[in-house]
Design brief:
single chain, 181 residues, mainly alpha, 2 domains, two-stranded antiparallel ribbon, 2 helices, elongated, transmembrane helix, membrane, DZANK-type domain-containing protein, DZR, transmembrane
Length: 181
C-alpha cells in the first residue's frame, strides 16, 4: 500500500512530523522529571529529610501521558497502514476458505428455494381464489357459498347509481362509493 495518497490537507506530512517531534520531546522531558522525582523520593528513605525533588514526578507523569498521546497521534496512520497490510491477506485467505467450504451448501439451499418457488407458481395457474367477505376464508372461484361460514360469495347487491354488483352486506358501492339504504 502506498504511503503517498491524496491527503485532505496539503501540510499533512509537515504536521505529522511536528506532532512526532513535539511528542518525543515532551515524552523525554516527562521521563526525566519522573525519574528525578522518584530518585529523590527513594533516596530520602535512608535519611530523615523529606525528598527535595519529589514534586518533579507530579510534572513528569502528566508529561509522559501527553507525550505518549502525541506520539500515538503522530504514528497512527503508519500503524493503521501496517495493520491493514498484515490483516488483509489473512482475511482474504479466510474468505476464500469459507467460500470453498460452503459453496455446495449454498447451491443446495438456492436449488431448494427455486424448486419451491417453481412448485408454488405451477400449482395456482389454473385456479383463481375468492376470499369470503365475512370470515376471510379463501374459497375456489366457482364456489357459491363460503366453505367456512356458509355466507353467499356471489355479489348480489346492485348499486342504483352505477349498476355495479357488490357484496350482500356492503354499506357502500365498491365502484362509485354510493351509500346503500
Amino acid at each position: 500500500m502506498s504511503s503517498k495518497n491524496n491527503n485532505i490537507n496539503k501540510n499533512h506530512e509537515q504536521k505529522r512530523k511536528t506532532i512526532r517531534t513535539i511528542g518525543t520531546v515532551v515524552l523525554i522531558t516527562g521521563i526525566i522529571f519522573t525519574a528525578v522525582g522518584f530518585i529523590s523520593f527513594f533516596s530520602s528513605f535512608g535519611s530523615f529529610e523529606p525528598p527535595k525533588y519529589f514534586w518533579c514526578s507530579f510534572i513528569g507523569l502528566p508529561l509522559l501521558g501527553i507525550g505518549g498521546g502525541l506520539l500515538k497521534m503522530g504514528y497512527m496512520g503508519s500503524v493503521a497502514r501496517y495493520t491493514a497490510e498484515e490483516i488483509a491477506p489473512v482475511t482474504k485467505d479466510t474468505f476464500n476458505y469459507m467460500a470453498d467450504g460452503t459453496s455446495e451448501g449454498v447451491r443446495k439451499i438456492s436449488k431448494s428455494i427455486s424448486e419451491g418457488i417453481k412448485e408454488a407458481s405451477e400449482g395456482n395457474d389454473d385456479k383463481t381464489l375468492v376470499k369470503c367477505f365475512k370470515c376471510n376464508e379463501v374459497n375456489d372461484s366457482d364456489a357459491k357459498f363460503c366453505k367456512n361460514c356458509g355466507a353467499a360469495l356471489e355479489k348480489t347487491k346492485m348499486c342504483s347509481n352505477c349498476g355495479e354488483l357488490n357484496d350482500p352486506d356492503a354499506k357502500f358501492c365498491d365502484n362509485c362509493g354510493e351509500k346503500f339504504n
